[in-house]
Design goal:
single chain, 486 residues, seven-stranded mixed beta sheet, six-stranded mixed beta sheet, 15 helices, 19 strands, binds NADP nicotinamide-adenine-dinucleotide phosphate
Length: 486
C-alpha cells in the first residue's frame, strides 16, 4: 500500500487542456508493481480521437505560450520546480511503487531530473540569434530562433520522472506546448508531474499527459500536421518505426535510443576509482539504463585485480523491494526482462563464458535477478551485441589500445562509452576514436542538465541537456534585411 503525505498526487486520469479526464469509452490500462506483482491502479486507455483532441488543445495553447517572454515562461518552470522539491518524498515513493527502484535512487532521479527545469528556465533567456557579416553592401542577414510548435514526447519506464523533465523543460522554455505519453508500465510519475504543473498554474493546453495504446496514439500523432516535433526515448526498434511514421508529415525528431556501452579499463587505470564507477554504472536501476555498462573490456595486466575487486563488491549487494532499507538492487521491470537475462547467460555459458558470481533468478523470486559477474565474453556471444538491461557484468580482456578501440566500436549502437586510464594522451586519444555520443573518462555519471546527452549511429539523433537541448525545440529562422544603403 502506497502512503503519501499528499495522496492527491496519485492520479488515475489523463491531464489534458487543464482537466483530468477518462478515455471516451472509459477503458483503462492496469498498472502493476514490479516488486510484488500486484495491481496498483489503472489509467485511461486513450485512442486516436482523444489524442486528436489533446493535440488540438495544445495547438490552441501555442500562440499564448510563445507570446510570453522567456522570463515569463521561466517563472512557470521555476514554480513547477519549487513544487517538485516540496513534494519530492512523495514523488520518490510513487516512482519506486510503479518502477521498483530503491527509494534512495528515486530521490536521486528526482534531483537530477528536476535540475533540468531551473537550468532551462534560465537558458531560454539566452537563445541569441546572429547578425551575419554581409557579403554585399546594403544588406544585413540575421537569424533568430523560434519555438518549433506542438511537441509530442514519448518516454520509457526506466526513468519515469527524469525522461519527462529532460524533454519538457527545454520544450516549454523554448515556447512549445507539450503532450507527454509515458510508458504504460510507469504512468504515475508523469501524472504527478502534471498535477504539480496544474498547481504551478501553466495555462490550459500547455502541459498534457496522455496514457493509452502506444501504437494507436502514435498513429494519430504521426499523421497529424499540428504536431511539429516528436521526442522519443526508448528502444531502437520503436525509434526506427516512429522515424519512418513521422516522415509522412516531415516532423522534427529527437531519438534517444538503446545503447551497448563499452567500459574500457587500461592497465594504468586507478583501480579503486574504476571499480566504483563500474559498480555504479552497472548496478544503478538494476542495470536498466540506456547508458549502463554493457561490455567491460579490461587490459590483460589489470584484469585479475579488476575481476576480483568487482566480484567482492557485487557480493555485498543487497537485492530487494525498493521500499526496504539499504536495498541497492530492485527488481527488473517484468518477467520478459528476467527471461532475457537468462537467455543471454545461457548463450554465453554455452559458448565458453564462466559465471563467477550470481547467474540466475534471485531467491526472492518474481522479477528479482542476482547481481552477476561473467568472464570469458567473446564476440560470438549475444551478450556482446545486445543491450542486457539487467545486473550482469560481462568481462573480456584485450592486449593493445588498437584492439580495445576496435572491440568497443564493434556495434551498431553509439550512446555511452567509458574509458579508465591515467595516461593523459590516451585520455584524449581514445574518446576521439570511440564512435559514441558520450564518453566518460574516469567517471561514469554522464547525465547533467548543462551537457548535451545523446547518441550516434543506431542510438539515435538529437541532444537532451545543454544549449543543444534547447535548440532541438527551436527553428533557426533567417531574415535578410535589404535596402539599407550603406
Ligand atoms: P519501448 O518499448 O521502445 O517503449 C518506450 C516508449 O515507447 C513507451 O512509452 C512505449 O509505450 C512506447 N511505444 C511502444 N511501442 C510504440 C509504438 N509502436 N509507437 C509509439 N510508441 C511506442 O522501450 P522500453 O523498453 O520502454 O525502454 C527501454 C529502452 O529505452 C532501452 O532500449 C533503453 O536503452 C532506451 N533508453 C534510452 C535512453 C536514451 O537517452 N538514449 C534513455 C532511457 C532508455 P507503452 O509503454 O505503452 O508500450
Amino acid at each position: 500500500m502506497l502512503t503519501l503525505n499528499d495522496p492527491s498526487l496519485f492520479r488515475e486520469q489523463c491531464y489534458v487542456n487543464g482537466q483530468w479526464i477518462d478515455a471516451d469509452d472509459k477503458s483503462v490500462i492496469k498498472v502493476d508493481n514490479p516488486s510484488k506483482g500486484e495491481i496498483i491502479g489503472s489509467v485511461p486507455k486513450f485512442g486516436a480521437a482523444e489524442t486528436r483532441r489533446a493535440i488540438d488543445a495544445a495547438e490552441a495553447a501555442w500562440a499564448g505560450w510563445r507570446a510570453l517572454t522567456p522570463k515569463e515562461r521561466g517563472a512557470y518552470l521555476i514554480k513547477w520546480n519549487d513544487l517538485i522539491q516540496e513534494n519530492k518524498q512523495d514523488l520518490a515513493r510513487i516512482l519506486s511503487y510503479e518502477q521498483g527502484k530503491p527509494v534512495a535512487e528515486s530521490l536521486g532521479e528526482i534531483a537530477l531530473g528536476s535540475s533540468y527545469i531551473p537550468w532551462y528556465a534560465e537558458e531560454c533567456r539566452r537563445t541569441y540569434g546572429d547578425v551575419i557579416p554581409a557579403p554585399r553592401k546594403g544588406i544585413r542577414p540575421i537569424t533568430h530562433h523560434q519555438p518549433v510548435g506542438v511537441v509530442f514526447a514519448i518516454t520509457p519506464w526506466n526513468f519515469p520522472m527524469s525522461m519527462i523533465t529532460r524533454k519538457t523543460a527545454p520544450a516549454l522554455a523554448a515556447g512549445c506546448p507539450v503532450l507527454v505519453k509515458p510508458a504504460s508500465a510507469t504512468p504515475y510519475s508523469a501524472l504527478a508531474l502534471a498535477e504539480l504543473a496544474h498547481r504551478a498554474g501553466f495555462p490550459a493546453g500547455v502541459f498534457n499527459v496522455l496514457t493509452g495504446s502506444a501504437s494507436v496514439m502514435a498513429g494519430e500523432m504521426a499523421s497529424n500536421v499540428k504536431v511539429r516535433k516528436v521526442t522519443f526515448t526508448g528502444s531502437t526498434e520503436v525509434g526506427k518505426k516512429l522515424t519512418a511514421q513521422t516522415a509522412q508529415t516531415m516532423k522534427r525528431v529527437s531519438m534517444e535510443l538503446g545503447g551497448n556501452a563499452p567500459f574500457v579499463v587500461f592497465d594504468d587505470a586507478d583501480l579503486a576509482l574504476t571499480l566504483n564507477c563500474a559498480y555504479g554504472s552497472k548496478i544503478r536501476n538494476a542495470g536498466q539504463t540506456c547508458i549502463s555498462t554493457n561490455r567491460i573490456l579490461v587490459q590483460e595486466g589489470i584484469a585479475q585485480d579488476f575481476v576480483t575487486g568487482l566480484v567482492e563488491r557485487f557480493k555485498t549487494l543487497r537485492v530487494g523491494d525498493g521500499f526496504e532499507d539499504n536495498v541497492e538492487v530492485g527488481p527488473l521491470i517484468n518477467q520478459s526482462a528476467v527471461e532475457h537475462c537468462e537467455a543471454l547467460l545461457a548463450d554465453a555459458v554455452s559458448k565458453g563464458a564462466k559465471i563467477l558470481l550470481g547467474g540466475k533468478r534471485h531467491a526472492l523470486g518474481g522479477n528479482f535477478f542476482e547481481p552477476t559477474v561473467l568472464t570469458g565474453m567473446t564476440r560470438e556471444m549475444r551478450i556482446f551485441h545486445e543491450e542486457i538491461f539487467g545486473p550482469i557484468a560481462p568481462i573480456m580482456t584485450f592486449a593493445s589500445e588498437a584492439e580495445a578501440v576496435e572491440l568497443a566500436n564493434d556495434t551498431p549502437f553509439g550512446l555511452a562509452s567509458y574509458v579508465f586510464t591515467q595516461n593523459l594522451s590516451r585520455a584524449w586519444r581514445i574518446p576521439e576514436a570511440l564512435e559514441y555520443g558520450l564518453c566518460g573518462v574516469n567517471d561514469a555519471a554522464l547525465a547533467l542538465a548543462e551537457a548535451p546527452f545523446g547518441g550516434v549511429k543506431e542510438s539515435g539523433t538529437g541532444r537532451e541537456g545543454g544549449r543543444e537541448g534547447l535548440l532541438d525545440f527551436m527553428e533557426t529562422r533567417y531574415v535578410l534585411m535589404g535596402g539599407i544603403g550603406a
